[in-house]
Amino acid sequence: MIQAINYIEQSLRDSDGIQVTNPATGELIASIRSWSVADVSGAIDRADRLRPAWAAMTAQERATILLKWYNLILANEDVLAEVVTVEAGKPLAEALAEVRYGAAYVQWYAEEGKRAYGEVIPSFARDRRVLTLRQPVGTCTAITPWNFPVAMITRKVAPALAAGCSIVVKPAEATPLSALVLEQLAIRAGVPEGLFAVTPSHHSAAVGQLFCTHPKVRKLSFTGSTRVGKILMAQAADQVLRLSLELGGNAPLIVMDDADLDRAVRGVMDAKFRNAGQTCVCANRILVHDGVHDAFVEKLAAAVSALRVGNGLLADTQIGPLISPKEAQRVSQLVDDAVARGATVAAQAQGAPAESAFAAPRVVTGVTPDMDLASGEIFGPVAPVIRFASEEEAIALANDTPYGLAAYLFTGDMGRAWRMMEALEYGMVAINDGRLSSEVAPFGGVKQSGFGREGSAHGLMEYMEIKYAMMGL
């Protein structure tokens, strides 16, 4: 940790600032500067001044710098992984996987930025030519969450920089250290200091409003709750600000009666229990066909009971703490409410530390769609199982939510897979797999899960405008 702190020592100067604690132990890690709204406004002004020179560089010149940043992230992956573990709580192996996953976005957009092609369009007149070109949208801002403190930043910053934009980022108060390390590595790689600026702040609501109303901001990318996303949309209206919103989810994981149950259990372990259930694409509801319900629950219960819970720095830990004791209490209350209404805890992992931020992984059966455990995001290591009797009922249950981020389906019938995939009202659907995130694929949702995409060529276009040029001959 000392090695990591050396990257960000210039920010560790405010004893009255943001207190960063290890959720596994409650230990104070660092006290860092909290940026005032005026300071953040100044960072936006500076980023906007630096932007034209960056935009004027060739795509290859920007790519060279981004690839240096990518290589520096990988060269310091152990340091970054340790920072992620101590500030976010996730097991060290998961933290290392996140660092590599986050770095992959930097590499991808370093290359993809060179392919932001325009078009020559067949003209409507003999004496005129029609063409388009792609240009950077301008100065951008981003607000990122605590659950993936590295990847949520690189997914936004890498395409912005590749496109020729500048970007000011407000990271989550709980996990600002990862962001500050990434910023310093970017500067070492050759990104002009201030072009990509990290501005941790206690003043979350005021900074969010500033990002929506500052006259030099042309785009805001936000990952967080639907409630806050709606507030930002309203605040951005007067500026007609370009937005990318990745909001809440209520992901179903459907197990059909023809599914490979062992594969489905592995899918649930990936989709539900990664990062202790604290991901926006977590399987929030496990929908299981009557015909295989009991057999599936038996296999899932055995897998969940065997999970090892503990401090993320310990080598054998599979499930770390939640981000705060408040979150652990909230998750326990959801389970207690479901049990009081007729559900049953069918399995529970043992050995969770006594510290209050830990929540034991559980399988809960007898869950009905009207229970709070099934209707909103759990954001914890609890797998609620809901029975269904037919393909039509499964689709109806899965779509009965205002959210539409991710869905998972396990079936051995590829005709059924296509049919159900098309019927599921989600921005992303994984078939026979519990992991779907990749830098090569467009990540994002529909309905109240937001709009816009991160990853793939679509993610680059979020930071570019199309200019049409008509040339008279």
From TrEMBL:
<comment type="similarity">
    <text>Belongs to the aldehyde dehydrogenase family.</text>
</comment>
<dbReference type="InterPro" id="IPR016161">
    <property type="entry name" value="Ald_DH/histidinol_DH"/>
</dbReference>
<dbReference type="InterPro" id="IPR015590">
    <property type="entry name" value="Aldehyde_DH_dom"/>
</dbReference>
<dbReference type="InterPro" id="IPR016160">
    <property type="entry name" value="Ald_DH_CS_CYS"/>
</dbReference>
<dbReference type="InterPro" id="IPR016163">
    <property type="entry name" value="Ald_DH_C"/>
</dbReference>
<dbReference type="InterPro" id="IPR029510">
    <property type="entry name" value="Ald_DH_CS_GLU"/>
</dbReference>
<feature type="active site">
    <location>
        <position position="246"/>
    </location>
</feature>
<keyword id="KW-0614">Plasmid</keyword>
<dbReference type="Pfam" id="PF00171">
    <property type="entry name" value="Aldedh"/>
</dbReference>
<keyword id="KW-0560">Oxidoreductase</keyword>
<feature type="domain" description="Aldehyde dehydrogenase">
    <location>
        <begin position="16"/>
        <end position="468"/>
    </location>
</feature>
<dbReference type="InterPro" id="IPR050740">
    <property type="entry name" value="Aldehyde_DH_Superfamily"/>
</dbReference>
<protein>
    <submittedName>
        <fullName>NAD-dependent succinate-semialdehyde dehydrogenase</fullName>
    </submittedName>
</protein>
<dbReference type="InterPro" id="IPR016162">
    <property type="entry name" value="Ald_DH_N"/>
</dbReference>
